[in-house]
Design a protein that fits this description.
about 160 residues, alpha+beta, ten-stranded mixed sheet, 3 helices, 10 strands, about 15% helix, globular
């Protein structure tokens, strides 16, 4: 399941990567956009424009960021202007689901951070909040309580 939430236009849940990719309708080989990338991909901006055109909501609002959550608790917040060449790999070249990075993988070739490749994406949020900043932020959400650290030192 891949969840997409747009703060102004609503949300959608996609049962598969193929269903999400089907919104765009224009897949391409990931390696044609970024050396070393493999699989079949869709352009992020084109996907978003197509998806949001079919949504109700107030028009005239420009997204400021894309927030991404992965199944391993990794999270990234990427300024919208850095997504012009971003793409989502949704399947292997042979049409099978991704064996590495399932269900989808986001590539941001011209971003300001090392967050160039986010694997195992399960949630996307289109945000309209300039307070989120001008540069990408990223990291793991998992937290460890001080007691857990002390316990691990004792064993």
């Amino acid at each position: 399941m891949i969840n997409v939430v747009d703060d102004w236009k609503g949300s959608a849940a996609f049962a598969s990567a193929g269903e999400l990719a089907g919104v765009s309708g224009e897949p391409f080989a990931a390696g044609s956009r970024m050396e070393g990338a493999t699989g079949n991909a869709i352009d992020w901006r084109h996907w978003y424009e197509t998806w949001s055109a079919g949504k109700k909501g107030e028009g005239g609002h420009q997204p400021t960021h894309l927030q991404v959550w992965a199944s391993d608790e990794f999270q990234a917040t990427i300024p919208w202007h850095e997504l012009r060449d971003a793409f989502i790999v949704f399947e292997q070249e042979d049409g099978q689901p991704l064996s590495k990075g399932y269900p989808i993988r986001l590539y941001v070739p011209n971003g300001s951070s090392e967050c160039l490749n986010v694997k195992s994406v399960i949630r996307l949020r289109i945000a309209y909040d300039p307070v989120l900043g001008e540069t990408a932020t990223y990291g793991f959400l998992n937290t460890i309580e001080p007691e857990q650290l002390l316990l691990s030192r004792r064993t």
